[in-house]
Write a structure and sequence with these properties.
The structure is a homotetramer of 272-residue chains.
Chain A: H1 2-14, H2 19-43, H3 45-76, H4 80-85, H5 87-94, H6 97-104, H7 112-116, H8 129-144, H9 146-171, H10 180-191, H11 204-220, H12 222-240
Helix pairs in contact in A: 1-2, 1-3, 2-3, 8-12, 9-10, 9-11
Chain lengths: 272, 272, 272, 272
């Protein structure tokens, strides 16, 4: 009977497609958002001064709930250590650890980032079937364009380094280009069309080079867009194509295919 | 006879494809633009001081016209309540209400936004056949990419929250990153490549992290572009593909095709 | 004989594909660039003070050359008035007119823009076959997406007006949002991700709304990109397809077409 | 025997697909990155003051290594002069030259850019098969869109010149638009959506024109994206499409296809 209870809990906690499992996940999401909002509010000085006490109280409660959840997850897992070492297992641990460390060490202000990492838990939402498929598509498209994107990032890095060094020579210390790393920072700000304006060229020649950097940045944004766009098209096309070979079960046949590309068997006519 | 008059009015007011209906809609558009321009002019202090009287006079006239129009729309509708509860029915009401409320309550300055909502009425223009089709295509493409865009917005939100918190720790109060929400605002300004420069990193490590945020923002803009681009292609393709050869059932004929490209049979005339 | 000479001149001046015609066009381009550079240099105060005399002298010479060219174009044209009323005819006239007006009226400083319009003449370069085709493709793609882009620009205009008015209420006069037109300017600066930072939200709620505007601007840039990208693909595909019906000479058949879509005749097999 | 040793060295130095060649290239990459980091560190004043001595020492060692490498490359080349005149031959020479010039001439501060050009050497990484294919695809796509991009850049240049001159007249000297070149710089900053904010329009009419420039810039970024996106699709498709069925000549088989999708015949093994 204990085993059956554990099994039931497992389904509630780890599955998202039963009503109870869905309710559990939705509750969890609410608590995650709440805890993130608490972290944010605590960082605002005027609020911290007024409601610091209450925020810390709610924080304690939510951490308690998360701790209980973590314990339950470990308890119902068939292989507890595998869960604990998994990505979500580590994220779950990280979302309660800062609180306990903060109990023992004062000035644990820096743990705020770890507490914010709780946000990663909302990616559990991708267990809901609809989003799983979509996020898998996007991830697949990004993975497929990995090599092309690497080449692109390398070319961009080289470009900003060379342009940055050039501007360091042209503009120099007195115009805010105090060192090459600083100038590379400027080149990135400019090439990505962010353009803070905290460092901006003052000399005529510097402005001319800047114009070049801007036009290059404006034009080459077409490259990642083209790469990722092509891969999204490919992934979506393949996803639409649900034809399966009746002989060898291979998938991913073209719309106009008459024969299986894997085993050469005749495919049934395309129903689409 | 009264009934016939009402029917005629209905066609003028609600249809856009008769000459009278078109004339009515064009008049209306002119009044809408005029009323928006009045709201804008009234908000400019130097103009308000000089011409406030005249602006309020014109405003009263235009509201009168809109009120008359609203009354007529309710009068000629076959199901008045259905019209009043429809999107455009509510927008029509909202475009006259602020004026009447302003008569009774002083300091109705805040109603300006509601008055600006009149602008939504220009979307009536989409009744003109040409734009209906185009806006439907775009809406369809956006609807189809809804799930993928949701995943994208969630990932971006998580990213800016984590990067924002990180920068809050690195830069801190003294460099303008006064709280986590503030830092998230900065992260959004940077990731979307807007880059006001009102908050900008001052430390070297902060600038390094900023560079990462910028490059990420520059690269991932490819994702929504790829998603929407793919869906626009799909929707446009499907729109082209509604003609079928009555002889061989081949699809995908061009708009200007008279004969089937596959078997040479005569195609029925294009209905579009 | 006079007639033959005129014919020869016509080919040199109006055609770009003979050696003499090409040489003529290249010379012209050089003079156009030179005259634009002169206009630019004259606008720089330090240069105007030092070399104003020389610049005006060169300007006179170049205008003389352009005047001669204009006279020749009118002279050799078969239908002089048709040339004079054509787009390039008007641009040619505009490129010499400011000089002559400046002789009679002092303070013709404002004619500088008209002088800069000379730059439009460089589009004659599109006569060179290679660029003609490419620019026709791009123009065709833009024309095809005209209706969709109009819908998009209307939606964006409505968006910036509503967001602008909202921010005018939220931020108000004291934070730089002095009027609705001003706030709309801010909304455009933000939505297009330009982000000067000359007007930036100061209140928390204003920053929240700004974040929304930025994310919307970042996401919807995907729409024009998708539209134009699709049309460029279509135009390029059609351009690649040079199959002509042997019966009715219709063009633009699909790759997999067996029969002419215009007259139903059998097409020769695709050689591609 | 000497010849055999030379041959072996050649394979290590110039080939990347043997274990020894790969190790050589990886070592080289590390030294290149190290030397770039040294250049960067030396440009930071606080570091130069403290560790200038050490940096120059490491610099000398690395230049020695690079000199040795250059000598070896010349030595093992079958046609030394051809290597020396090649792109990478020149880059290799440029990466050691500044040091030797600096020995004879003082104040060789300006040589910093040439030293940074060493970074170009990391493109040797494209010898690794995976990246070669990807970078070739991207280069091919860019080459194919050359003519269209030229037309686009010309149109953009004309646009910024005309808009820049217009703004020079509207805003004038007192609002930072001190000359036409300056105003063109502003127009580029705005059109590319960089938006530093160092020069920003102050007058109402100037802000109206600026809004136009921004919206144009926001919309036409779709054009290069569409161009490059189309070409990337074409290049990727062609890369996929090199397999032909020996039985029915059908093309367009997937990479993992073993049998023809049109006739079911066995395909020859994929050579890629």
């Amino acid at each position: 009977m204990m085993h059956k209870f554990k099994e039931k809990l497992f389904i509630i906690i780890f599955e998202a497609n039963t009503p109870a499992g869905k309710a559990f996940d939705v509750c969890l999401l609410i608590f995650i958002f709440l805890s993130i909002i608490l972290v944010m509010l605590e960082s605002v000085q005027s609020i911290r001064v007024l409601y610091g006490e209450q925020i810390r109280f709610l924080e304690t409660i939510i951490t308690g709930i998360f701790s209980l959840e973590y314990a339950l997850r470990v308890y119902v897992s068939h292989r507890p250590f595998r869960y604990m070492r998994s990505f979500f297992g580590l994220v779950d641990l990280l979302s309660i650890l800062p609180f306990y460390i903060g109990l023992f060490f004062m000035g644990s202000h820096n743990l705020i980032v770890i507490r914010v990492l709780r946000l990663l838990r909302i990616f559990r939402i991708f267990k809901f079937t609809r989003y799983t498929r979509e996020s898998n598509h996007l991830l697949q498209a990004l993975l497929n364009s990995r090599a092309k994107l690497t080449v692109f990032v390398m070319a961009v890095s080289t470009l900003v380094t060379i342009f940055g060094s050039l501007m360091y020579l042209i503009e120099g210390d007195e115009n805010g280009f105090t060192s090459i790393p600083q100038s590379i920072y400027w080149a990135i700000v400019t090439l990505t069309t962010v353009g803070y304006g905290d460092i901006a060229p003052q000399t005529n020649f510097g402005r001319f080079i800047s114009s070049l950097v801007m036009i290059v940045g404006y034009a080459i944004i077409a490259i990642p867009t083209g790469i990722v766009g092509y891969e999204i098209t490919q992934v979506s096309k393949n996803a639409m194509n649900t034809r399966v070979c009746p002989n060898c079960m291979a998938e991913g046949h073209d719309f106009n295919a008459n024969f299986c590309k894997a085993c050469g068997a005749k495919l049934p006519a395309n129903q689409l």
